Amino acid sequence: MTGKDRAATANNRHRLLMVTGPSGAGRGTAIRALEDLGHEPIDNLPLSLVPRLFDGPPIGRPVALGIDVRNRDFSVAALIDLIDDLTERPEVDAELMFLDCDQTELLRRYSETRRRHPFVLAPTPEDAVEREIELLTPIRARADILIDTTDMSPHDLKAEIARWVDAGAAERLAVSVHSFSYKRGVPRGLDMMFDCRFLKNPHWEAALRPLDGRDERVADFVANDPLYPTFFEKTRDLLLFLLPAQVDEGKSHLAVGFGCTGGQHRSVMMGERMAKALAAAGWQVSIRHRELERRTGGSPRRMAGGGA
User: Fold this and answer.
1) Gap between the Cα atoms of 69 and 139, Å rounded
2) Minimal CB count within 10 Å: which of 82, 159, 284, 287?
3) Which of the residues in the chain have pLDDT under 70?
4) Which of 79, 94, 192 is CA-nearest to residue 144?
5) Angle at CA 190, nearest 5°, toward 188 and 191?
6) How far is Cα 53 from Cα 40, in angstroms, rounded to an integer?
7) How do residues 194-238 score in pLDDT, each as one tens digit?
């Protein structure tokens, strides 16, 4: 079924977006954002009552259902059984959004808010966070939408959710292009990634080292590598070939990563140029440079010019 077919039948089906993740990852923020986007919010409904939501005719707007370990009859097995049951029901269009977050960041958030963790019987807050993350691992593996909120402010999370559930998501695919350093690990949630470490490294040029891949001098240096033109063209053509297929598959978001050693020069340059090429082809593209965000403390994340 194509994206257009899904859009045509959406009004005849119950639409449910289940939102879960470890405590402190932003579930409450996500539910409020979804309410602002036209969803009917329901928080902490006992899992055994969820099927009752679909006894009558569709209400005409999607339901955003918040689920966490504090639900009265919560268990991993019960939630997986519920997901399997809803997936098999032809009258229900159900998706699971999982909000992920690094353990250290979850501890910091609880320290700042002074809230008690749901696992109050755990010996330490560290144990409580670790136990919940381990408990939810099978649920994370079932997610249709995975959002890592580690480096996100509440505003960032609301913007990310808005991009995921945009009313035109059935017709358009939102593409996010990321640059990163392999030394700091691969960003979570990438659908595809490309290694740029074989290209000439501006780091070894004293005049270019303090700059980053957005500077034309750095971009020109990397582009002068004999391997660059073929690498860029083949990667661009591969993405342009795959993106329509992702739309037909029903995906609303695709995350593409470019990595290099330090995440400052080659990956940033490739990310910038690829985002512009995809935007010029009519795709909705946003750009995020993870290591530049760490360096500046800001959020150099934006939409690429020329996109839809």
Assistant:
1) 12
2) 159
3) 1-11, 111-123, 166-172, 250, 296-308
4) 94
5) 145
6) 12
7) 999 999 999 999 999 999 999 999 999 999 999 999 999 999 999
pTM of the model: 0.53
* Tens-digit pLDDT profile for residues 134-151: 889 999 888 888 899 988
Mind giving me the DSSP string for the chain?
--HHHHHHHGGGSEEEEEEE-STTSSHHHHHHHHHHTT-EEEES--GGGGGGGGSSS--SS-EEEE--TTSTT--HHHHHHHHHHHHH-TTEEEEEEEEE--HHHHHHHHHHHTPPPS-TTSSSHHHHHHHHHHHHHHHHTT-SEEEE-TT--HHHHHHHHHHHS-TTTTT--EEEEEEEEGGG-PPTT-SEEEE-TTS--GGGSTTTTTS-TTSHHHHHHHHTSTTHHHHHHHHHHHHHHHHHHHHHTT-SEEEEEEEESSSSSHHHHHHHHHHHHHHHTT-EEEEEEHHHHHHHSS--EEEPTT--
Burial of 172 (0-12, 13-18, 19+ CB in 10 A): middle
Say what the pLDDT of residue 219 is.
96
